[in-house]
Amino acid sequence: MTTMTPMTTMTKTTTTIDLRSPVPVRRLPAWVLLPTALLAALASFPAAAQHTGDIGVSIEAGRITTRAITASGLAEPLRVFAGAFADTGVPWFTANPGYDAPSGALPTGTRLGVRFIGPIRVWDGDSFELTSPSGALAGERLKLSFLTVNATSSEGPVPGFDLAVQSDGGWHRHLNMTLLAAPGATAPEPGTYLAPLQLYSTAAGVEASEEFWLVLNGGSDAASFAAALSAAMDAMDPACTADIDASGAVDGADLGILLGTWGATGMADLDASGTVDGADLGILLSAWGGCP
Questions:
Q1: Do the beta carbons of residue 92 and residue 179 sit within 8 Å?
Q2: Domain residues for 84?
Q3: Is 6 part of any domain?
Q4: Are residues 193 and 276 in the same domain?
Q5: How far apart are CA 186 and CA 267, in angstroms?
Q6: End-to-end Cα distance, the chain
Q7: Separation CA 56–CA 230 (nearest Å)
Q8: 258: part of which helix (H) or strand (E)?
Q9: Residues in Cβ contact with 120 at an 8 Å cutoff, skipping those fewer than 6 apart
Q10: Do 105 and 169 sit in the same domain of this protein?
């Protein structure tokens, strides 16, 4: 499979993500290929700087939008970002990528926050799976923190925390990210991990961002990490969001998932309305067949 449907709203993930091999490795953006040492060095730049490879933040049409950052500043919308644990020499820890909203991007006097949309997953060479066959709580989890506030991934959505927007309307933060070992283990298993996140604002009338993913290298070799990152980027492609189970086609299995969550929220909420309903069914049926 080549797609994994983003959940968009804060919903619990219950289906297996199956990104079948062979995974076509697309040409990755230049910032993805930055050496780990350079990514670590970027974190030491002044707070006003925008760092290539960080998560750009803006508000477009009343909704928070995540963007790539290049040497010229904010670039195209982007919803998959790369990082690496131990980039500063501390095992299973990273503060990259950070978050950069330029001056004037956000309403002053408000707060911007980050929250987990669902459990983290790990790349098994073919697909992103739960970190343990016994469920998210039995495997590795990711802890986000900033000074005294923190949030840890769980089986489903986690509220997260928010921080004040700067007086100039900017927001530059590098959140601490620590991969926690599975219960009973002394350290996490090496691999590539995917964290599904969402940004939200306390400002009235500003919608939360669409789901975005952090793909974090925890000891994978370059080829494996590139394949995992490419698969995540392909899965986030909106051309086949109706492929709920990421099988590479919109079919009866996806229809079953949608009908099974009718009237609730979840991965089958294809139009991000907050409810799985007839509009989502229409989107799924119109996309019936193989993904492009």
A1: yes
A2: 30-236
A3: no
A4: no
A5: 33
A6: 12
A7: 20
A8: helix 252-260
A9: 131, 136, 140, 141, 142, 153, 193, 194, 195, 196
A10: yes
Among 64, 98, 107, 86, smallest CA distance to 214 is for: 98
CA 209 to chain centre: 11
Query: Could you tell me the two tokens for 100?
Result: 């950069």
Evaluate whether residue 2 is within a structural domain.
Answer: no
Q: Where are the beta strands (DSSP E) in the chain?
A: 55-60, 63-70, 73-77, 80-84, 93-94, 99-101, 111-116, 121-123, 128-130, 141-146, 149-152, 158-164, 171-173, 176-180, 191-201, 212-218, 249-250, 289-290
Domain count, the chain: 2
Give pLDDT tens digits for 21-49.
333 444 455 444 444 444 444 444 444 45
Quick check: 272 and 8 in contact, CB under 8 A?
yes
Task: Quote the pTM value.
Answer: 0.72
Higher pLDDT, 112 or 51: 112
Q: For residues 257 and 262, give the distance between their C-alpha atoms in angstroms, rounded to a whole number.
A: 9
